[in-house]
## 1
Amino acid sequence: MTLKPSKGISRRKFMLLSACAAVGFGTMSIGKRFQALAASKDIIPLSDLGNRDVFTTCGMCVNKCGVIARVRNGVIEKLDPNPYFLKSRSMLCARGNAGVDSVYSPDRLKYPMIRTGQRGEGKFRRASWDEALDLVVKNLSDLAEKYGRAGTVFVSSEEFQEHFFTTFAECYGSPNTLRHPSLCLSSNIQGFGATFGTNPTPDVLNTDYIIMSGANRSEALITPDSIDMLTGSGGRRKLVYLDPRFTKTAAKADEWFPIRPGTDMAFILAMIHVIVKENLYDRKFVEEQTEGFDKLVPHIEAYSPEWAAAKCEIPAEDIRRIAREFAMAAPKAVYYQGRRSSFFDNDTQMRRAMAILNAIIGNWDKIGGMVPNSQIPLEGHEFVAPFYEDIPERLEANAATYLSEKDGSWKYFRDRVLEQKPYPVKGMMIYKQNPLVSVANREKTLKMMEQMEFICTIDITMNDTACYSDVLLPEATYLEREDPIESLGGIHPVLVWREPCIKPMYESRPNLWIMQELAKRMGDEMSASFNYTMQEYREHQVKNNPEILKALKEKGVYYEKDTPTYGQTIGKKLKTKSGKIEIFSQKYADKGLDPLPVYKHPESGPAGQYRLILGRTAYMTHGTTANNAFLFDIMSENHIWLHTSEAMKKGLKDGQMVKVKSPLTTESLRLLITEKIRPDCVYLSHGFGVLSKGQRLIFGKGGSDAALVEDFVEPISGNMAMHHTFVEVTAA
Amino acid sequence: MYRNGLLMSVLVVVCMSVGLALAADGGNSKKGKYLWKTNCKTCHVEGGGASVLSPSSKTTKEWTEFFDKNTNPVIMEKCKKFPEANLKDIRTYMIEHAKDSDQPETCG
Amino acid sequence: MKKKRFAMVFDISKCIDCKACTVACKAENNIPLVKDNYRNWITEGPLRGKYPKLGQSYIPGQCMQCANPPCEHVCPTSATYVNVDGIVLVDNKKCIGCKYCMTACPYDARYYNEKTGAVDKCTFCVQRTSVGRIPACVETCPTKVRVFGDLNDPESEVSKLLTKHPYRVEKPEIGTQPFLFYLV
Amino acid sequence: MTTTITNSKNIIGFSVLGLGTLLGLVSVGYVLMIGHSNAYNLTRQIPWGILISTYVFFAVSCSGLCLVSSLGHVFGIKEFEAIGKRAILVAILALLTGFGVIAMELDHPFRMAIWVILSPNPLSAIWWMGTLYGLYLILLCIELYAFIKENHRLASLVGLVGFVVAISACSNLGAVFGLLEARPFWHGPYLPIFFILSALVSGCALLALIVYFNHSLRGIEMPPEYKKFMITLGKLQALLLGILLFFIIWKIIPGLYEKYPGIYEATMAALSGKLSFNFWFFEAFLGLILPFILLLNNSTRTPFGVMLAGLLTTVGVFFMRYDMVIAGQIVPMRISDGGKATGVLHYVPSVAEMGIVIGSICACLFVYVLIEKKFDLSHTGHH
């Protein structure tokens, strides 16, 4: 915050001005709010460049909420929620409010840098853009010559300008792009996709009965679900929550069960058992719109609530009751699939079970049910990637049953890099991903990076991955960039974009500029794919409806209707092979997979050890925000949670330093003794225990989950399975 | 319990997809994409003259039929300009990215 | 124009302890990011029950904007005063840093701001409310726990809420007459 | 022989006091350099620390000295007339030291000087505290002047006014704490009354020290009139300590009886918690019981015994002020750690705070001893 000029004086001038308030603003309709905003002169016209209010989109997490940036005297003073932005219900969370610090943080990457010391030592020298870009291109060309174009992996994560990065990868000719879904939700997408042909969105706002397992919506915020979870209509809403921890979602739930980790499928199969056996399913729907129900009936015979109770430690009578209540509430009932699903190695099948449970009560594409995502179509900007002969398949092709060709699988990919099979990968281009913090088994990631001949990172801060790179290219933050229009799908689809609030600080540049400059140096053919300005790009995106641009400029968001549309897929073929909801998956059977989910009990840990479970807080986004001054102010380290009874047995005291030892390594961090966790588990939140001294606030604080967690994998989707690690906890 | 059913369905599917699998085999999807983009797509967009078309416009089955059993003389005429191998590449690309392909959805 | 009596009503059943209000307040009011410096907070209520039957509430709070504010009474230089809208404010230039108001406040709502050299507290975002906007914490709150408005206006949302629902205030026995209301 | 001993004693004494004063000055410089929030261990929950309690110690001692000395020149008790001038001088020094300490506690002492006058708040006990002690300082100066000029009429007139102001000031200082309804341990009329009593105790203790050390410092035999005074003072102090003992007992019992939130936890902190060593050892044993025994017993109620009792009581009272100030704030105003057992808050003075406290005590003594060396105050002015 040192770089931010004081704003106290201009503020105080406003104090004590005579009031003419439009109170109750927060509860007004959108239209009324608009009038009120205009009347109160709350929004300063764009013409005044020094002082203006910019409608843009938050970039602190994946939700992309609407933001009004208040720019005063050329400084972004405050980010306020955009009241027009329906998806986030005109809110901004702690991270959204803290976004200003991503611009003004002293730990930003300010200039292009070239490594001078050993990798990871953190010694760099400032370089000119020309020098840095030339060096990157020289290395990319050399690598292509030495190892072929597949010898460089392009690592990235979702961001409005990520498209340019993957475009670059495609034009460069590498099949190896490695994205985040295999650390997050790919098993979820796979399980629901195999059943419905798509991963639908639960209509949380309108549902009467939600069951969430491990989806901690009060802390892992997803808009609008986190909000709608609490504001549901009618007062008949019931929330059943399964989690080994008493999270802040548990505190809001009607019922919380500390389920044994990895046994959710037992609970779900038993619910299906009850619903099928007691004829509570939607017979008409099942007959008309699903495939393979007849095979489900004998399949679930053995999965009685009594059987499940022994597995998941939820009493049989509760399972039975919840199953009945759930079916009674149908179709306004959802078994919420959550988002991050990198839990266990049977995760895809567990999500399949969830999908089947949803299917048999007929909540598909109905109000309060499971609704397939809609999308406002945008025209793609056409480019033609050059075609290179003899490009091999992805490095980890065929490792997982169903691999996304764009996303890949971190687990399998990294293993094959280390084996150098079937071919070596010696170059790494990284955009906005921080694998040293986000990928389980940090030691392996370090080894993978060590064997790279060249690593270039494009990011905004000196995170761990940047620290282990050879060339650093500073990107402009989301508040300094002009971004393409993005179509956010969902029940209520919208279009958003980003407008720059201030000019990029220091020598940071938007990713498009960086990619254009690299492409220019790579040659004419590549350069042709980037032959446009951002403005032209946007115009191409909306060439069928230029009105969109106007709406975005005025309100920062565009949507076609005020209310969602349900039932668009009813009577139409789904994207499955059969065109119906596939309870029995022929496609899986063909691949030798279980066509119906078969329960697999998770292994128990060695005596005296605890299962390490991971999770989030509402004030941190993965490994990216812990060093934010505002958020650090709220949470300055992570603790290892241990149940009171276990701590008592071990004679450990609250707040003391403990050693957490996994088969991989030992991390030291502070102990939090609590009733809010199963006695056989410990919990650790994500994003601390960093290696880079360039993150000055959090360096030396807390412990790293990535270092502790073993890299098990879910073989159907290639998703990481991060809850198979057992740890010892001893006094430090 | 379902083992018989499984066996049966495996057999059925294997029989059904033998031809398909053989036909899809051998094409280079990446080359197909390049060829599709450079030769076909320019017209198969809005205002391009031809019907708007992308791989996800049709299911695997529909694409297979489109390429293998097409009797539409206009399309046959257009396709003739490609050598057999290239057509196979395009076919592979379209089928691998069909509406109901095994390609999972992605995030972000 | 009629005098206002600004108040805030909390529906704590909706509070998920996400700390959006705290960060919004710090950003809006330029509060130095040092420990102990905050105008509003969310406390975790006591954990009810024993594992595995547990319950917990999260209770947001800030200056209660008392009608009978002890902080105002004790200030030797009248640096703390109440404005026309019923908001308790501090005139920074008059604050001598004796911290008497901090010991007098039953809600721990005040802290000493080294940057301004004065005791600081929630002002209901007077720079916003005086031009018709709502406080930053209210505007940003994801689950809309907070409702802000004028109690002198019977049509305001806060007035309606308080006529419709039972509510409580913090430490009523002290006689501070807080204007932050918690629905029960 | 005696002279050299006295001289070397003097040198050691002056060096210790000088070093202490220097420590205080260094601490002050350090605080001015790095700012209050970095130098002091104060938090938003415990905003008042050892500087406030030390100020209270000095201010109440000042009041006490005058109250006790007024027994002589206001109420005409003969034995007490001998110490009037010294008492006034020490009172002035104590008050100035107290002001110095509180100036270090305030972030803006100069702002105070302006706004206390331009924007007064007569509802504020601290405003009254400033006003009364300010007025009191002026009265003390006039009184000292009257003594020096041997204007007895003026001295006893100002003494009478001073007596009223001294009681007002010190009981008002109690009210600074007692008026806070937010702090149940302080709240109520107890502290103002308690402050009057404890002022008397402090005053007696300090007078005993002053009289004794004046003679021993100079290496002269104590004249009989002073001996007599010391014994009378001892008896008076015994009475006061006996009453004080019951004041303290009656503060504790209601604190435990109904377990009233805020009072109970604070009382327990004193009895068995974080402040218990301070309370039992310094306050109760050193400050109260031991001196009480010394003074009750005829064989120990000698000038030395009375001095020793005074020394112990002074130390005890210093801790009593500290414990009172901290105990009132030690119970958090809101529960902030969720499910966990809520404890009392934690405060330990920082090195800078201790430095200022030690420095202030040393500086006060240093100046006093210096004045005693330069001017002859033993002349009592009565014929």
## 2
Amino acid sequence: MEHLIDIVLLGLLMITGFAIVRMKSLLAVAMLTSIYSLLSASLFVVLDAVDVALTEAAIGAGISTILMLATVALTRDEEKAPRHTPLLPLAVVTVTGAALIYGTLDMPHYGDPAAPVHQHAASAYLHDTPGEIGVPNVVTSVLASYRGYDTLGEVTVIFTAGAGVLALLGYRTRRRNIQGPGIRKLVVLRVIAKLFFPLILLFALYVLFHGDYGPGGGFQAGVIFATGFILYALAFGLGNAQRVIHHPLLRIMAAVGVLIYAAVGIEGILLGGKFLEYGVLADDPVTGQHLGIMLIELGVGITVAAVMLIIYYGFVSRQD
Amino acid sequence: MTELLGHYNYWIVIILMMTGFYIVIARPNLVKKVIGLFIFQTSVFILFISMAKIEGGTAPIIEEGLSVYSNPLPHVLILTAIVVSLATTALGLALVVRIQEAYGTSNEDDIHVQDEED
Amino acid sequence: MTSVYSIGYMRSHHESRQTSYYSYFAVALGSVMGIAFAGNLFTLFIFYELLTLSTYPLVTHAGDDAAREAGRMYLGYLLGTSVMLLLLALIWTWSLTGTLDFRSGGILEGTVTPGIASILLILFVFGIGKAAVMPFHLWLPAAMVAPTPVSALLHAVAVVKAGVFTILKVAIYIFGIDFLAEVPATQWLMYVAAATILLAAIVALRQDNLKLRLAWSTISQLSYIVLCALLVTPLGIVGGSLHIVMHAFAKITLFFCAGAILITTHKTRVSELNGIGRRMPWTMAAFTVGALSMIGVPPAAGFISKWYILLGSIEAGQMIAVGVIITSTLLNAAYFLPIVYAAFFRAPEGNTGNVNSDAHAEAPLTVILAIAVTATGTLALFFVPDIPLELAQQLTGESK
Amino acid sequence: MLLSNLPALQVVIPLVSAPVCLLLRNPRHAWACALIISWLVLAMALLLLQQVYTLGTISYAIGAWATPWGIEYRIDMAGALMILIIATVGAVTMPYAWRNIQHELHRKHTGVYYTCYLLCLTGLLGIVVTGDAFNLFVFLEISSLSSYVLISLGPSRRALTAAYQYLVMGTIGATFILIGIGLLYMMTGTLNMQDISQRLPEVADTRTIRVAFAFVTVGVSIKLALFPLHIWLPNAYTYAPSVVSAFMAATATKVGVYVLLRFFFTLFGLQFSFNAMHVGEILMLLAVAAILIASLVAIFQDNVKRMLAYSSVAQIGYIILGISLATTAGVSAGMLHLFNHAMIKGALFMAMGCIFLRLGSVEIHNMHGLARQMPWTMAAFVAGGLSLIGVPLTAGFISKWYLVNAALTDGYWPLAVLILVSSLLALIYIWRVVEAAYFHLPGADMHKVREAPASMLIPTWLLIGVNLYVGLDAGLITNIAQQGAASLLGQALQ
């Protein structure tokens, strides 16, 4: 059964991918991309990667699609045909693909328990996490502690994106509340949005604090939090949204999140340990790990939420 | 069934990756290129997650009564990579917006023509 | 050897005060000193390049298109050959022997096969573009375009002497003359040098511009020295070393004369010089001395070095070299003597009405003085060749 | 305590300062912050170099997790040298940046510029010190994303398309690297570089590893602008703000080369990379093509920044050429040139920034007679140019010397000739500028042009000073390069 879903999903992905190549309408392409992302998220669930699925759904299908739609709205909708025949690209792609397929021939089989990936470090993570970190979700323990430094890098990447969009698109605060006449008429949407808004924020907090036990964590929470505001902005106008969270605040939030994370790391040094060593944060190492993970997830969440909104504001404020 | 699927997953994923790659290098529209990158990267994620899968395993959340879990490490890597992909997409699209404003087009060929005229 | 060598350049230094390019001159002269005193090939190379770069602004000084073109050629040839060939030879030598020190008897012997040594020798001889062995000689006439007579002088004397001096040093201290004799390429390169001597002399014969004629003559004379280095006999080396000094004195004299003629009469062409000897007797007398030295007629210094070169060729049993030297001497005579003849014995052309131009109109006294000093030097060296000779013999003595 | 945590602090301090910089609303404060951090980073780099010099390779476990579970920082001599390059260029360009950024950037961007610069610095440093393959990818992305932004801030609209082109190519490169790392992980089950290299021999003879190798190589080659994957570079360096060109030309591609070294020698190992995969021959071929073609193209450029960009492609060719020999001599020559070229190109681009500030253009035909108006700037350009050509007494000469020597020792004498021939090509393109500036009559408006301000001249001359110093006394830096090469090749230095 699992395999069947797998095959079907992969097939659908392929169809979507080809459709994206062929389609000329960029609006349609953006929507198809969203579908592609959602399909991958489903596939991730089938492949037991629930955390990834949640993130892909929120980031890939959610935020990315919004950005694409915003860009399509700003640029021309239709794609022009390429000037050159695509022979060279086709050749490059064929060669690359052939190389990769050649590489698969010696790969361990899909799902093979004897594959090296399941032997070395991975089994240790699964084995040691309960004792060393005390968190059931091993993804969280690896993400936040064993490879916490990658995650710091990841937050920095997001922060970079925020700073970059700030530099490229800037922001304009709206005095007047510009709102499409279309949306004003959509009473249903506005009512639903109003209902959903607190629920989404609540769910974000749940995802943030429940990340130790189930799928979720700072990233997903941050994105969901931002999505709530984006929905609000869509339904009630950018001006209103900006009145709730205005731009300078977002800048501060984006910076503070990274700083919280780094501060936890430096605190480890100051307490006589290594950088990002959470064990020294409390008397009991496991408690220290808990504390550390909680704090850094918070930092991640703040930065991600802030940067998502900075990016969104940046794109939307260009629509004049 | 496992034997049949031995490499099936990987092959499809490779086709998906190449679809994205093709869009990037063959399509002149700047938005579409970014979308191509997005597809390319997302497909690479599937490759990683596929390798983390273990036959008969479950999601790597420790629970009583379960002993086989899929490998959490690729999941972690891909969480990071998804964020990187988002950052790239956001910056790429922001650049497209600026290019559209500066050139009045988001078609690569037209931009080349304008640059030649400068 | 080195001190005498440097003294030769102090003469040009003496004159250089006339120009406002004293700083470049200082660097250039410093580089020449550096080349003279360098204890190893590497240091020598550095000063060699420094000399190229510091003299470049003097060539291009005028700033017009012709000067720029000349400068391009100058830099292209000199940097080009030195970077492409000389540096390669240097690094190669270094990687083969692990040292670049000048050592008596050479450093290459016993570490390389004659085949590689041949390639190295070719690289060295052509790489030292300042020696102006054909086909890398074109920069020299180009540099003559340089308007400042002093810079022309520098290029004709200081720079090229640095080149041949380097070749001598390489021949003696890097290869060692004994080893050099075993290198097959020596023979071939000697022929190239011989060909350069003859060809350049023939070209010189056809030049109407006095400076250009001198420049081509320089190319020809330089190859004498290269030829000497490749004769691989002690006498040849002595002759070559002497010729550096002798030629320097003679050429300085000639260039000073050319400069003096330019300053006073604004004439640059050989064909315009008819009767000039009546106007500028002192200048042209000095010119005659210089010319005689170039040809190798006693009592000018050139005779002594040529004598040794001939002896060296005979010692080496290179009859071709002997033939070339004799032929080129005739050619030298053919391109210098007509000038002297015309200057003194032919009536000035055209407007006899302008009597004033016939009057004595010598160059400024300082210039005459400088010319006199160098001309006297040229003569003096014939009668008292002991000092340079002794130094030159010491050079070969060391290398034994 | 702080000293033992130096490897982490080397990266974390600029990382932390980036958000702080964003919070500072006044651009002057942001600049001061970036300036202080840059010099602090340089101080730390020197300290770290000294530590590596005395103690040997340093390993630092982040979060105190043992390898391969946690992420390891690992710094050997090659890494320490690389950090020193980045830190030096960072510290020197920062005082320069103030005037340059004020002039070339829109006012509202100046604050963000410093944030992005610090992020880029963080990313580059992070790439160098890390001993973990995936962590390398993450920091690569930090540096790449921030450099896309930095480039896009250039004064003309073409900066945007240049940045976009770089973004697309850079992302393809990064994704290729990611695929490569994924395949490696699939076969070895670990991400730590040391650990991978130990486990690799067992599976080295599989098609998967070969493909992984190919993907990593291609991906990194895009990042380091190896011919013919360099097409993003000329536009990026031409249209970026001058200080960004200087910083990037001196560091970003160099870090790319360093990553390549890490993968080839530390991770896959000399045996696999060069004997089994024959990457040496391929690289040599590409390097030769890069040197010749890019140098030739450079000759025909009128825009000097573009000319320098093409020259960079050629110079990267030199570095790769040294590496492709896969001998200690070759690799150390490559690393030496890595350092020297960073100093040369940094200085040259900075001189161009000075000219752009006063002249408003970097086209050769606008520079006629410029040397009279800006003697110091042009003198710096000439000095840097001579170093690029490889004239004795400059750093460029030292690296050429070692490169040619390495080629000759291996018997590749045509390569030695090629290196020297291409020096002449460099002579031609540099001299076009020199002739215009020194020997052409100035244009009508030239008398209005003034010399660049001291805040820009002094940093430029600092780099020139390093060039000349290395040209005079190359002992220390060649020693470091040789030790770096030896540690990469896993040999003890004789």
